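FORM 7B: Structural annotation worksheet

SECTION A. Query
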Amino acid sequence: MTTLTPEDAIKAAASVARDVADGTLAPADLEVQAAAECRALFGTVAGPDDPLWPLQVDIARQVLALDGVAADELAEWLAVARQRAGEPVSPANASPDAVSATSEAHSAASDTVVADATEPMAAGMADAEPEPQPVPEPTPIPPGRRDEYDPLRGWSPGGGLQRL
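SECTION B. Predicted structure
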């Protein structure tokens, strides 16, 4: 392993400055390289045992504060978190029961027909258990390029964290 001395750092900085001045190194290239280095060091979220975890959580909060994640994707992740916690998951936007316009009576004679037709159905429905609600599944994210953010990278759908 080599140690970086102050002289080495000065020479490296001077070399970068010279390359920028000569036009052989563009600032955009430096940004791309810096982003790649940050992604390599910081881009994989390993969990609470990772020394970078507090920083990753802080950045995640900042992204959420700036509306960096769409509301529908946040709802999907909330459903995943509730499912992991064992909470019952219910659809957030449950639509009200539909009422058909054809179920209304059109005359006095049809009132008795509608009432007679609904009584057996109502009696049968009183004993029936409510139909179980489907659990919403998060939409899978299609595989992207290597340089794109993958929220599922490192996530194992097999359960919780493994303790050593």
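SECTION C. Observations
Residues 67 and 146 are 24 Å apart (CA to CA). The helical segments are 6-22, 27-42, 53-65, 71-85, 108-127.

SECTION D. Sign-off
Analyst initials: ____
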